Amino acid sequence: MSSVVVEGVTKSFGSRVLFEDRSFVVESGRMTALTGPSGSGKSTLLNCVGLLEKLSAGSIRVDGRDVTRLRPGGARRFRRDTLGYLFQNYALVENASVRANLQIARAPGHRGGPGLGIDDALKRVGLDGMERVPVFQLSGGEQQRVALARLLVKAPTVVLADEPTGALDRDNADMVLESLRGLADEGAAVLVATHSRHVVDACSDEVRIG
Question: What is the per-residue pLDDT across 174-199, written as a single tens digit (0 to 9) for each?
Fold first, then answer.
């Protein structure tokens, strides 16, 4: 399984430095909280790990490979085969059904791990029987469950979660944390950007920036 080694990373926008010369490791099988004050660059750092933004300096290695040096094709394959992302806004196709959204996770060419089948994933997150429902008809908590089920289907070895419980009640937040912990227990390296002490307490490790 994958480990993530962040080495001497810096991100700046003009004269503004979000974070500078930060290093840490997210081990396979561990769930690490990324914390810091608002505006410290937690989401930006996640985006850099996910190759959605570029670092100003430093490197990010996954299984010994510097993913920040990947060409566009390699970056696409990394996102497809290795990475799973839990966005704040869920990043679902709202006019498609729950099942169609989960099928995207097993798109042709996917070479990730052997994830759960769609029906099993929906049962795991408490949405069994809802595979035909359009996403726009779901509540925010239910959409978060679909996003989690998508991760279970994909079975990524690196999981990035950006404030995954920020808009959820305690029960849904606990469901999210339990699911992320389950992915870590199965060998994924899980990095969670959060300002919530409840989330930090559920993690194995904490890295603070800013």
Answer: 988 999 999 999 999 999 999 999 99
Residue 2 contacts by C-beta under 8 Å, 6 or more apart in sequence?
A: 28, 62, 63, 82, 157, 158, 188, 189
CA–CA gap between residue 72 and residue 51 (Å, rounded): 10
Structural domains of the chain, count? 1
Q: Are 110 and 150 in contact (CB under 8 A)?
A: no
Judge whether 99 and 131 are in contact, CB under 8 Å.
yes
Selection from 210, 209, 167 nearest residue 191 by Cα: 209
- Largest CA-CA distance found in the chain, in angstroms, rounded: 52
Residue identified by tokens 């996403």 is 135
**Contact at 8 Å (CB) between 51 and 75?**
yes
In a domain? residue 68: no
pTM of the entire predicted model? 0.91
| Separation between Cα atoms, residue 53 and residue 138, nearest integer Å | 30
CATH number at residue 101: 3.40.50.300
CA dihedral 22, 66, 106, 92 (to 10 degrees): 30
Beta strand 31-35 with 189-193 is parallel
Residue 193, domain member (yes or no)? yes
Q: Containing domain of residue 190, as a range?
A: 29-51+81-208
